[in-house]
Amino acid sequence: MGALQITVGVIGVAISIVAWIMFVAGVWRMVRIIRLGQPDSTRNGPFGPRFATLIKEFAAHTRMNKFRHVGPWHWMVMWGFLIGSLAWFEAYGETFDPHFHWPVIGAWQPWLLLTELLGLGTVIGGIALAIIRQRNHPRRADRQSRFAGSNFGQAYFVEAVVVIEGLGILGVKAFKISSGIEDPSWWSSFATKGIAEILPASTAAVTITALVKLLSGMVWLYVVGRNLTMGVAWHRFSAFFNIYFKREDGGGVALGPLKPMMSEGKPLDFEEADPEKDVFGAGRIEDFSWKGWLDFTTCTECGRCQSQCPAWNTGKPLSPKLVITQLRDHAYAKAPYLLAGGKKDMAGDEVGLTGDNPYAGIDVLAIAEAERPLVGDDGGVIDPDVLWSCTTCGACVEQCPVDIEHVDHIVDMRRYQVMIESNFPTELNGMFKNLENKGNPWGQNAKDRLAWAEDLDFEVPVFEGELGDTEYLFWVGCAGAFEDRAKKTTRAVAELLNIAGVKYTVLGPEESCSGDPARRAGNEFLFQMLAQQNVEVLNSVFEDRDPLERKIVVTCAHCFNTLANEYPQLGGQYEVVHHTQLLNRLVREKRLVPVAPIADDVTYHDPCYLGRHNKIYEAPRELVGASGAQFREMPRHGDRSMCCGAGGARMWMEEKIGKRINLDRVDEALGTAPSKIATGCPFCRVMLTDGVTARQNDGLAGEKVEVVDVSQLLLEAVKRRPQPVPVAGAPEVEAEPESADVSTDKVATGTPLPDEDE
Predict the structure, then answer these.
(1) Are residues 552 and 645 in the same domain?
(2) Are 406 and 305 in contact (CB under 8 A)?
(3) What are the DSSP E strand ranges found in 259-387?
(4) What pTM was estimated for this model as a whole?
């Protein structure tokens, strides 16, 4: 051990002590800050399923690989960080003694091969990620960059450290070989042995390279320890906890049901709630649960959520990524005030800190941050236009690789704005009043709920006190009962069930709105009122049946999600099926037999609340195929399907900013040259029909293009239509020429897709 080694080793240790102190202090501060959030005991277990999900998601990169061109490179970097840390710690010994290696495994050929692969993987992976970031730089037009709004300096710092660490691992190994310290086999050191041949023999170089390897990590520890909002770095640690504590302990993402309204870690009981003590949604950053604070901390700013968001892609101010990062920055800026005991009452007066100088010792910036409203157009953390642009489609949650629960957080903020501040878009006033007074958002009379059944050539059975041998309760829904276009779906389903001999009944005037629009708009109180009323009615209808035999079929994707996933929160346990699922089963059982294939080119739009929220993708497509139609898939489909724009109660709000979402989706559908656009949700049908009509008026769509429900396609195929009989002497009618089909990969339609989504 020479003077150089002693000097270098001491420098490395001294810097390490400072870096580790800074890092551990940062971890401690972060834990204290995250604990400022509201309690949430629902995340505590069970351990087995949660741990299994954690292992699957990080080891197999199941969610990261949703972007396949990114997944492999990030996988290399991740394992390089986790296992490569052993090689990094080895540098402490190598700075003092170039011959140092770990006992037992240090000279083991498989270990040398592993370090070779880890070193190469981190270098290649880090460079690849930097190239991907450059190729998707915000300089690109049309909001195509998912990195718009991300902190590029922090990202490049992390990627540089990754590459330097990898080069350090390879460099130390290569100099050891060139200096004769090690002589590994070619198969275990295929890259470093080649590099060693052009390097000089120098034990000093081993020491210096080991120091570079060590200091790259020390600089990283010091920098992130001082910057708790550097999510692109901290996710290396926090992502494991965020995945483990995700809302669904079975491994699913936070879609389907909304998180119940919580206060002090328990579902809020409106009969006993006190606005002075209980938390009504999220009106201040401390109203979010500790898991929400962990979400904010974990955001990597990768922008996958942003790239999939229909609001962002149509020029709205909402970016799910920026919502999370803005909440994160506000939370950590306000944290010193909260840690000191600061708290304000409903009127905004300080009640947590007392004395002549209550703010003594608190950072003035934290005090200023405490004065900012969470939502507001005058200095608020989140702009109201951002909050109300969300369609709750769930594309952000579906794509997030670290399981951030964007939709739950957005709805929590809406809840506070609606129930405490009474601050929401004026268009929702009418919808709320109609729901409260008439039990439906259209404000129609309950006695008209059976108007859709008029003129049918069979009798629609209405529940009259006993189910008897009825198999299904047909939940018609408000749209299916009152909206003219949706009525066609209701009639088609009723007719198909009649043809198949399925015994069903409807509630008629006893049915009320499921409450979905109220809940997504933030009016949790109104939702609870409607839902409890419906649960009471449904439980009385099914009172003699086991919960597993309480079967309901629905045509509305939003009703389906609410009845199946949210009514159990209120004591309503039912087996709920979507009409596409039931009809598909009836076709498979030969109870519905298509006999007249339809000669149409059909593209299918996945409703968000049927697809992403409930993973029902195949049944509607199989029905389109069963009808005999020529099926054409849109570029954005399945779990990446584009929203129609109606969700999150947006159907009742004016769309005043940017391009209309339904027009963007219709443009994409028209790019497949369809004669029909099929869907499985009345909300989607309304929005898409409006979009098609607008494009027809613009001369951009054929007059015969129409939007239908898949049940109508099936009904047309099941009912054999009589062929026209030619009349002697009548002139032949020349068939209209078919429109030329242009593939969407040749002519772009709708919002341009980022490269990684094509």
Answers:
(1) no
(2) yes
(3) 262-263, 266-267
(4) 0.91
